[in-house]
Amino acid sequence: VQPAIAPGKTFVYEFVARHAGTFMYHPHSDEMTQIAMGMMGLWITHPKDPRQHAVDRDFAFLLNAYDIAPGNYTPNVNTMLDFNLWTINSRAFPGTDPMVVRKDDRVRIRMGNLTMTNHPFHIHGHRFEVTGTDGGWIPPAARWPEVTVDVGVGQMRAIEFDAIAGDW
Length: 168
Prior knowledge:
Blueprint: E1 21-25, H1 31-36, E2 41-45, E3 57-66, E4 85-88, E5 106-113, E6 119-122, E7 128-133, E8 136-137, E9 144-146, E10 148-151, E11 156-162
Parallel strand pairs: 3-5
Antiparallel strand pairs: 1-2, 3-4, 5-11, 6-10, 7-8, 7-9, 7-11
């Protein structure tokens, strides 16, 4: 409902983040081009009481996909489903960072999916609980155990587990 932000200009959005959780942002103006060029991200609103939802290690991943022809640096912004480059936090393997944790650490992984397809996520050698969805925490009594969780298009999931020894 507002005019587009002109090239080279800025606009500051201000709001009160009332709910703790993990959220994604992306534009809704020329979104295919903007998202294909990397205009997206995560933000995390922590609870007022830092002991609430406490873990030893907390990781956040934003999944995205691109269609980049060999020799090009700019993605094809009109591609809807036929992607050839998949990224985590805008990095493609092997440029992704490992998740280093200690044995018995309580680990949280937050995953947002801004690709155009659902993405199953699993961790070898571990079972986990689904603890958050689309910006909200799941009450402990309603959490469920999994070995794979499907993160749908535009969805956010948080999982937690206790790390076991090994190179996974």
